[in-house]
Specification:
This protein is of the alpha/beta class. It folds into two domains: about 260 residues, 2-enoyl-CoA Hydratase, Chain A, domain 1 (Alpha-Beta Complex); about 40 residues, no CATH class. It has 15 helices and 13 strands.
Length: about 375
């Protein structure tokens, strides 16, 4: 056998992600000998698969290895469990280490930028298997992928302005390419999440697959309106979340169901199979030509965004991440009204200002 050179940056033992090579299936369902799909799996379910600094490093290397792997047909980027694909950066690490340390966060953002670029520059097609919430930075690394296939309990959205940041890790570059400028503006600022059905309707994702079973049969997500429904303004709001009594009843009904990813994973495998039956270089060129639309924005903005995000760790991010990490479960946001009042009065950013607007400090005073 011919001895081949290794073009990987480093050989590591993965500790915060899982990397698996799974056989690629032929059209008849049998494994194609010597051909695989590489699954890159975030493994932090207790913190909704948020990524730590170490995890970011591992994702970069995993994508580089998969890109170089001659036997890999496609990359499936996903996470453990059924609650979340990824909710972004690890807020505990942000609050306890990076808050107030812009020089450290700037180095972290170099790694984050490299993670997004590693996805966009992978020589293999990348499928985001959205097994649950895709929020914040999770939304951004998901949009860097070529396809997004979601189980229908998943939710999609941003959280930046609510928690002290801006969605400059990709959403301000990518989201409008999927959903248009108006919906991108709404999502990136207001931060209301979209259901998987809304995300499909807005062209954010490729396909939605049922994941709930009742009495052995798949059923649609009961928490959202899965038929066309006209609200009080005469708008069709298919896929929007139910409210009030309807939502309470849906939550009770949900308890009777089980989550089953069998059909979901069959769809993922079907996409991988279709990708195998293509000329590899023609496929790669097509992917890279389409990815240019994302890269035009990403490469233009990522370094200046990195600088700003680092400096923001001295002010709003410091307040927002500490509030989310340290605040009571029922209140993880700062007092926005008081913050605006203080700034309108000319107050400078300081630890005293942060304490005055922080929910954890208010709870102590109460």
């Amino acid at each position: 056998m011919k001895i081949l050179n290794s073009h990987n940056l480093n050989e590591i033992q993965y500790s915060e992600i899982i990397v698996e090579k799974r056989p690629c299936l032929q059209k008849d369902g049998t494994p194609a000998e010597g051909l695989f799909n590489t699954w890159i799996i975030l493994n932090n379910a207790k913190q909704f698969n948020s990524y730590t600094t170490q995890a970011v490093k591992e994702v970069i290397l995993a994508f580089r290895e998969a890109s170089n792997d001659r036997s890999t047909i496609a990359v499936v980027f996903t996470a453990v469990g059924d609650k979340a694909f990824c909710t972004g950066g690890n807020t505990k690490e942000y609050a306890e280490y990076y808050a107030g340390n812009p020089q450290e966060y700037k180095q972290y953002m170099r790694l984050f930028n490299d993670m997004v670029s590693a996805i966009l520059m992978c020589d293999k097609p990348v499928i985001n298997r959205v097994n649950g919430m895709r929020i914040g930075g999770g939304q951004e690394i998901g949009m860097a992928c070529d396809f997004s296939i979601a189980q229908d309990l998943a939710r999609f959205g941003q959280a930046g302005p609510k928690h002290g940041s801006a969605p400059d890790g990709g959403s301000t570059d990518f989201l409008h390419l999927f959903v248009g400028i108006e919906k991108a503006m709404y999502s990136c600022t207001i931060c209301d999440p979209w259901s998987a059905h809304e995300a499909l309707r807005f062209s954010l994702i490729t396909e939605v697959v049922p994941a709930l079973k009742l009495d052995g049969k798949y059923i649609p997500n009961p928490l959202v309106h899965t038929d066309k429904w006209v609200n009080e303004f005469g708008q069709i709001v298919y896929g929007t979340a139910k409210k009030g009594e309807d939502l309470a009843q849906a939550k009770e009904f949900l308890k009777q169901c089980e989550v089953d990813f069998t059909l979901f994973d069959e769809v993922i495998e079907r996409y991988c199979t279709k990708l195998m039956y293509l000329f590899p270089n023609c496929l790669s060129k097509t992917l890279n030509s389409l990815r240019k639309k994302k890269l035009e924005h990403w490469d233009k903005n990522k370094e200046s965004n990195r600088d700003w995000l680092a400096l923001n760790m001295m002010t709003e991010a410091k307040a927002g991440f500490k509030a989310f990490n340290d605040g009571p479960k029922d209140n993880r946001e700062v007092d926005f009204v008081r913050l605006r009042q203080l700034l309108a009065g000319g107050c400078e950013w300081s630890d005293e200002l942060i304490r005055e607007i922080s929910p954890q400090f208010q709870k102590v005073n109460d």
